């Protein structure tokens, strides 16, 4: 495991997150299930640490060769932007927002730059993509300002600066913006980046990480009422983010312990399949929810149609849109 370059276990983790978010959002938006909405926050959070973890090698290549900076941008933008723009157009058309100012804000990922910047949050899942895109844009430039030997040290300093600064900002923002504000959540991705660097040390503490996950996840589940009822309290807003990050990073590391099982070709194929579906699932599941809420099916039928369409559409989207785009991406030196 020390020499793994590709983690099939994290392909599985990515698929788990994608379907988890989609399922929870269906229950929350159509059936008004508060517990599912509460759990969906956790699934979205998983993507941040996963993103930082898997992007670590590319970011290191930028440090070693500044010429890779624009290659990194091209790779990220080819991967993320075309499908996002297509999905945004469809969602905006469904909600009659194509000519609104909010559409422009979504288009440039600035809908969560400041509180209450948009009038209608009609594409609610896009906030996490705004964080990702601005991180892709800004963090590589920042790390080029560091010397190679101090990159990790300075990244740790930045992580704690963000973490400490947010403590003093809790009274300035409501709980929703404190969790979803574009410039407030870089620490979540940075945590994944640092975890990849220290991964060889982290995996030695398997029992401790398992206990940490059990305790933090149990606290998250059994404190649902507290966090919902007291979400605007100064310390609650802050500790909620810390709890999300603790669960996320511990579960990500635990998933990597499944890597020996991934030697099985069937596990590899399944993990690879659900991983390839994840980005399109994240973008289009809200479209299916908007359509299904207009139809009065039973809970079981609605869920079966929903999951089946997610699997089918995401597979087709990957094959005919994402895969050709991925083939166009330049390689980093």
In short:
This protein is 75% helix and 0% strand. With 333 residues, it is mostly helical.
Number of domain modules: 1
Number of strands: 0
- Category by helix and strand content: mainly alpha
Average pLDDT works out at 95
Question: How would a crystallographer describe the biggest sheet?
Answer: none
Task: Catalogue the unreliable spans.
Answer: none
Secondary structure tally, helices: 14
Through-space gap between termini: 24 Å
In sequence order, what are the helices and strands, one letter per element? Answer: HHHHHHHHHHHHHH
Shape: globular
Share of helix, binned = over 70%
| Rg value | 20 Å
Estimated share of beta-strand residues: under 5%
What is the secondary structure topology, with strand pairs?
Blueprint: H1 8-31, H2 34-64, H3 68-94, H4 101-107, H5 126-143, H6 151-167, H7 175-180, H8 186-197, H9 199-202, H10 206-222, H11 224-229, H12 234-256, H13 265-292, H14 299-328
Helix pairs in contact: 1-2, 1-13, 2-5, 2-8, 2-12, 3-5, 3-13, 3-14, 6-8, 10-12, 13-14
